[in-house]
């Protein structure tokens, strides 16, 4: 009998163990090992050949729990099948390809629903995507995340964010300031999403050198947008 300890620091314990410890029990059942969570460690005990198969799966589960990426017992069984077939390289989580890592903020954005997962995949696979859905479902946020990801990976040279300058039910009257100051209140949701994903100073520099452009839709007619990731938000108000 051999014991192997894995560090679980930073992992969501409930997500890792599962409801009523069912994820822990599933590892034990699949690999014939004894698994115990103790403080910031996951302890596995069993025969050497069983541990060689169980440890990569357990480590992958810990990484997913750190990213707050959901998984369940069918996923664990799939991880186990992958290890048996291809070794460590055979472990693939269904959300792996649609995660968006943001190096500047050291965050990983993971879809929370099948709809969001399909939305990100559509953005990755198509040149033009139309997103329709209720408020608060992540349409703008995920689109901006995909744009920032494409900019970091140099798939595009700039990001263009456009939004109709339409008031939400009440007349604000004439706003003071120059053009940018007048339209900024209408474009604030785009700034909020952007500043949640990039450091503020980097956002400011990118806007200054036009790597990122945020503009009202009325000023986009006739523009040439080569090598750009373009997001038109609230298009129904155009």
Draw up the topology in text:
Elements lengths: L1 E6 L5 H5 L4 H10 L2 E5 L2 E6 L1 H19 L6 H14 L13 E3 L4 E3 L4 H12 L13 H14 L5 E6 L15 H17 L4 H9 L3 E5 L11 E5 L6
Parallel strand pairs: 6-7, 6-8
Antiparallel strand pairs: 1-3, 2-3, 4-5
Number of helices: 8
Spatial shape? elongated
Straight-line N-to-C gap: 68 Å
The helix/strand class is alpha/beta
Q: Averaged pLDDT, please?
A: 81
**Rg from C-alpha positions?**
23 Å
Report the order of strands and helices: EHHEEHHEEHHEHHEE
The CATH architecture of the largest domain comes to 3-Layer(aba) Sandwich
Helix content: 40-55%
Determine the CATH topology of the largest domain.
Rossmann fold
The largest beta-sheet arranges its strands as: 1-3-2
Domain module tally: 2
The tally of strands reads 8
Structure keywords:
single chain, 238 residues, alpha/beta, Ribosomal Protein S8, Chain: A, domain 1, Rossmann fold, 2 domains, three-stranded antiparallel β-sheet, three-stranded parallel β-sheet, 8 helices, 8 strands, 42% helix
Task: Please tell me about this protein's structure.
- This protein has 238 residues and is of the alpha/beta class.
- Helix content is 42%, strand content 16%.
- The protein has eight helices and eight strands.
- The strands form three sheets. Strands 1-3-2 form a three-stranded antiparallel sheet. Strands 7-6-8 form a three-stranded parallel sheet.
- The radius of gyration is 23 Å and the shape is elongated.
- The model has no long low-confidence stretch (mean pLDDT 81).
């Amino acid at each position: 009998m051999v014991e192997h300890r894995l560090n679980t620091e930073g992992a969501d314990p409930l997500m890792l163990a599962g409801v009523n410890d069912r994820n822990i029990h599933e590892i034990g059942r699949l690999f014939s090992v004894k698994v115990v969570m103790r403080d910031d460690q996951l302890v596995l005990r069993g025969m050497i050949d069983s541990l060689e198969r169980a440890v990569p799966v357990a480590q992958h589960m810990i990484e997913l729990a750190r990213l707050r990426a959901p998984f369940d017992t069918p996923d664990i069984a799939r991880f186990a099948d992958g290890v048996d077939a291809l070794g460590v390289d055979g472990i693939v989580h269904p959300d792996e390809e649609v995660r968006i890592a943001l190096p500047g903020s050291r965050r990983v954005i993971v879809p929370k629903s099948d709809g969001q997962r399909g939305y990100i995949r559509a953005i990755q696979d198509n040149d033009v995507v139309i997103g329709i859905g209720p408020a608060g479902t992540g349409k703008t946020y995920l689109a901006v995340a995909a744009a920032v990801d494409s900019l970091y990976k140099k798939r595009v040279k700039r990001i263009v964010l456009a939004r109709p300058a339409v008031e939400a039910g009440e007349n604000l009257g004439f706003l003071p300031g120059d053009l940018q100051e007048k339209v900024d209140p209408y474009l604030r949701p785009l700034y909020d999403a952007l500043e949640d994903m990039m450091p503020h100073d980097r956002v400011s520099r990118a806007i200054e050198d036009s790597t990122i452009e945020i503009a009202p839709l009325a000023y986009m007619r006739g523009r040439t947008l080569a090598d750009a990731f373009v997001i038109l938000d609230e298009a129904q108000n155009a």
